[in-house]
Amino acid sequence: MNVRFTSEDDGARLDRALAARMTEHSRSFIARLIDEGRVTLEGKPAARASLRVAEGQTAEVDIPLPAAAEAASQDMPLSVLYEDADLVVIDKPAGLVVHPAAGHADRTLVNALLFHIRDLSGIGGQLRPGIVHRLDKDTSGVMVIAKNDEAHRKLSAAWATDRVRKEYMAVVYGTPQKSRGTIDAPIARDPRNRKRMAIVAGGRRAITDYEVIEPLRHASVLRCVLHTGRTHQIRVHLKSIGHPIIGDPVYSGPQWRGIPDRRLQKAIVSFGRQALHAVSLQIPHPKTDRLMSFTASVPEDMASLIAVLR
Question: Catalytic positions, please?
């Protein structure tokens, strides 16, 4: 959809100006399209919703096809680590999308949850019921899902506190000079590619602790603890210190070509995802407030990769 701004729009925020012209859509929906890189201004990707427009400028808006009004229940296997009346904790496999979205209408974690759990929390909406937090499609490991609205509210409130501890394992190229450290660098949409995240001045603060737990040949295994939960945080932060995650299709490149051992090259190239696993999660129980910790074993594909790189 093309929108040409008039004198009435001159100096207005991009999201407000578009909302005034596209009355069938909410401003928040339009802001989300801008954030997803679906809006161009004068032929260039709009960097942010707060951009000011001028009379005579033209915006092009890519509106995705509508998704189903609600997710369908589908019988899919789930690896359940813990379950009670308020929550369920699972070990999400790599390759499983968390909720329906463009390009993934079904066969998601939400579809499986709707089959296995009755009266799933509705706070996340019909397409994201019970979802307190997310893991990327190709990140495996521990996830908690709220089974009722009260549990959802309490878990969400705890998420920004130090009572929630999220620990990940990553296999990265090379070995950091410092065996442990903290990366404190703000993250926002990459202004040059709105489908990626990047270290951006003025972005949202993001803090990741890392520790080398095993040096490997041309690689290493890191333990990462998140103090914030920005999109792609670990992936962006590790790239920023020169040690991108092996197999990351967005934030790493063909670094494997610099490895002289062909066997190691083959193992890295054939690894079909980013080598990132949510090892453990500590949360306060939404009803008892008691701290609970859950752990997911390292998946077979990552264990095999590490074994080859030793």
Answer: 136
